[in-house]
Specification:
Blueprint lengths: L2 H17 L2 H16 L6 E3 L2 E3 L3 H14 L3 E5 L5 H15 L7 E6 L4 H9 L6 E5 L5 H11 L6 E4 L5 H11 L8 E4 L23 H11 L3 E3 L1 H7 L8 E4 L2
Parallel strand pairs: 3-4, 3-6, 4-5, 6-7
Antiparallel strand pairs: 1-2, 7-9, 8-9
Helix pairs in contact: 1-9, 3-4, 7-8
This protein binds S-adenosylmethionine (SAM).
The site of S-adenosylmethionine (SAM) has 19 residues, from helix 4 and strand 4.
Length: 249
């Protein structure tokens, strides 16, 4: 075994042990509750654009995008564009390192605010970004996403729009099948299930009705996807517990 392989093997064992540490899990829950009440995820930027994510999820996504080397990343939920710019920048780095030269990000949002669209289009990473305005469940939007994915290798999907069970399940039905084998469909904000009701800030979703309940339901009928528990065990803190779905066949 090479020193690098040994380092990786030791790390995998440490991550597994860390994932089973009950005290650490309790401390993480306590920290998440308090941080979420402070709207922690709203306070970061990626290359100048607000990105509504936890840094730990951003690093997890970096690892997946490097590993998968996607030709296309489909994202529902654009908001200020930070996650689109992040994905585009990772594709740019992949390309600079010999990965797919023309990889792109396709973002979908029901309401792309004029100032956000202008800032995304003016961003240096915009050359890798396309956007569709419309509901992610609208038939014509799904058709456009399917057309964009046709013939592309290593398609990666990120779902981060309306977080009700019905909407997230609809998105899973529509977009998860576009995920390539070996790649991921990442369902964000599954954390809603694990947080106190009050932390849903009077949104239409909450415990019992959210992306985690949708992913659980979807997985019942879709054995081609498995939760990658290694990501949860590694990052501990994040908004997508049980949401890193790996397509295994
Ligand atoms: C949590 S934000 C996305 C954050 C973004 N992915 C990021 O990391 O910075 C959710 C977005 O979903 C959009 N949205 C809500 N309902 C939608 C729908 N039916 N179809 C598509 N987008 C929707 C909202 O307009 C909002 O911009």
């Amino acid at each position: 075994m090479t020193p690098s392989e040994q380092f990786k093997q030791e790390g995998a064992a440490e991550i597994a042990a860390q994932g089973g540490d009950e005290q650490l899990a309790a401390a993480t829950r306590e920290w998440m509750n308090r941080a979420n009440a402070r709207k922690y995820s709203y306070h970061f930027e990626w290359m100048g654009r607000p990105i509504i994510q936890y840094p730990q999820d951003i690093v997890a996504m970096q690892e997946l995008i490097w590993q998968v080397q996607p030709e296309l990343i489909i994202e529902t939920g654009i908001a200020h564009g930070g996650s689109l710019v992040f994905s585009a920048s990772m594709l740019e780095l992949n390309a600079a390192c010999g990965g797919p030269p023309d990889a792109r990000v396709l973002g979908i949002d029901i309401d792309i605010r004029t100032h956000n669209r202008a800032a995304i289009e003016a961003h240096p990473m915009s050359r890798r970004i396309s956007m569709i305005e419309g509901s992610s469940l609208a038939r014509e939007v799904i058709e456009q996403a399917r057309a964009a994915a046709a013939g592309k290798s290593n398609v990666l999907v990120c779902l981060d729009s309306n977080h009700t069970h019905a909407h997230a399940l609809g998105e899973l039905e529509a977009y998860a099948p576009l995920t390539s084998v070996g790649s991921y469909c990442v369902v964000f904000d599954t954390i809603v299930e694990d947080l106190p009701e009050a932390l849903s800030f009077e949104r239409p979703w909450g415990p019992g009705d959210n992306p985690k309940t949708a992913a659980r339901r979807y997985l019942e009928d879709h054995p081609e996807f498995e939760i990658d528990h290694r990501v949860d065990a590694k990052i501990l803190i994040g908004v997508a517990p049980h949401g890193y779905l790996r397509r295994v066949r």
